[in-house]
Amino acid sequence: MLGSDDSERREYASHSAAGEDENTGSQVAPIVRLKEVAVTTGEEDKDMLLYWKAKLYCFDKEGSQWKGRGTGNVKILKHKNTGKVWLVMRQGKTLKICGIAPGSAEVLNC
């Protein structure tokens, strides 16, 4: 009786493994068609002066400890017309802004 269960298990395992590689030929049409949308980040009219990856921490005064705000890309951007400089940090996967600060061109020697 135990021998028949083992052979059934082996037969099932061989069928399920073969089924993974099979191409059924069926195609699924998308339910919703999405239109391409132009996304503006606000960085279009700025020149990138510097770019690097970093981790952002903020000091929590109540807990007296540093807390992580995110890991991502840091850019120093200079506006083409006004010459104002900004430090912008975006999270790696979502590209949400997690840090932004104004700077001065004199300090950066731009």
TrEMBL record:
Recorded superkingdom: Eukaryota
Major subcellular location class: nucleus
GO biological process: mRNA transport; protein transport
Domain RanBD1: 27-98
UniProt keyword terms in alphabetical order: mRNA transport, Nuclear pore complex, Nucleus, Protein transport, Translocation, Transport
Cross-referenced SUPFAM superfamilies: PH domain-like (SSF50729)
Any one Gene Ontology molecular-function term assigned to this protein's record: GTPase activator activity
Pfam families reported for this sequence: Ran_BP1 (PF00638)
Composition skew (Basic and acidic residues), residue ranges: 1-13
Gene3D superfamilies: Pleckstrin-homology domain (PH domain)/Phosphotyrosine-binding domain (PTB)
Any GO CC annotation of this UniProt entry: nuclear pore
Name listed for the protein in its UniProt record: Ran-binding protein 1 like c
Organism of derivation: Apostasia shenzhenica
Taxonomic lineage: Eukaryota, Viridiplantae, Streptophyta, Embryophyta, Tracheophyta
